[in-house]
Amino acid sequence: QFLLGESDVGQNRAEASRRALAELNPGVAVAAHTGELSEAFLAPFQVVVLTESPLEEQLRVGDFCHARGIRFIVADAKGLAGQLFCDFGERFVVDDPAEGDPVCAAVQDISQGNPGVVTCVGAEGSRGHLFCDGDLVTFSGVEGMTELNGREPVPVRVLDAFRLEIGDTSSFSPYRSGGLVSQPKMHAVSDEELRRGRSLHAAFQALHAFRGEQGRLPRPRAPADAERVLELARGLGTPRGPLDEDVVRGFASVSAGDLCPVAAVVGALAAQEALK
C-alpha cells in the first residue's frame, strides 16, 4: 500500500491513507468514512468504486447504483490477477474517434528495396503518420506498386514521423502515385484468450465462495485449497466453454498475495474509468 508506512501499523487504513492522499493535490477535498456503506451514504455520489469487497456487497451496491444512475466500478487484485467491472448505466455512450476511425495516412512514395520504405502524410497534410512500431497495416488505391493493394496486413517499423519500413518490396512494380496506408481493426480474439478470461472470471467468483465457506483466502501453494476453489468454479457452470483448470489452480495458489505492481495497474485502469 503506497500511502502507508510502518508508523501506521494498527491504525485505521482509511484514516491513515487519507492523510497521505490529501497531500498529493491540495485542491481536492479528501474525506475518510469508516462506517457502513449505507444507501444514504452512497446516494450523493456520481461514481462509486469498490475494492476488496465481498461479492454480496458488490451485488448490493451495484444494484443500488444502477437503479439511481450512479456510475459503479469494482476493482480488485488477487496475486497475479486483476479484476475490473464497470456499470455506467443504461445510457452510456462511447464517443471515441479512435474506436471508430482507423489510423491512416496518404502515401507519397514507396521505394523498391528490402526493406521497402513508405513515405506518407496524414490527413491534414503535414502531420505525418500516427503509426507505431509493430502496427499491422494494409494498402489500398496504390498505383504502380499494385502488389500491395489487398494484401494481408503487414507489420511496420517507424523510421520517423513520415517514413515507415514495410518489408521486402524489391520484386514489386515501381510505385507511381496515390494510395492509402491504414491500420485495420483487429477484432479476432483467440479461443485460448477467451477461455483464459472466462476461467479467471469463474476463479474470482469461486474465490468469493471459498472465503464465505472457509472464512479466509486459500493458503499459498496449498493443493487442497486450490482443488476446492476449482471444485467451486466447476459448480458455477461454464455454459460458454470449459474451464482452464490450470489457470484456476494457479490463481487460487497465489490469491492470498498482494502485489503492488498488480494493484498499480488495476488501480490505474479503474482511475481512467472513473475519469470517463
Automatic annotation (TrEMBL):
InterPro entries (UniProt xref): E1_FCCH (IPR032418), E1_FCCH_sf (IPR042302), Ub-E1_IAD_1 (IPR042449), Ubiquitin-activating_enz (IPR035985)
Start and end residues of each Ubiquitin-activating enzyme E1 FCCH domain: 114-185
One protein family per Pfam: E1_FCCH
Top-level taxon of the source organism: Eukaryota
Pathway listed: Protein modification
A single MF term (Gene Ontology): ubiquitin-like modifier activating enzyme activity
Designated name of the protein: UBA1 enzyme
Organism expressing this protein natively: Crotophaga sulcirostris (Groove-billed ani)
Phylogenetic placement of the source organism: Eukaryota, Metazoa, Chordata, Craniata, Vertebrata
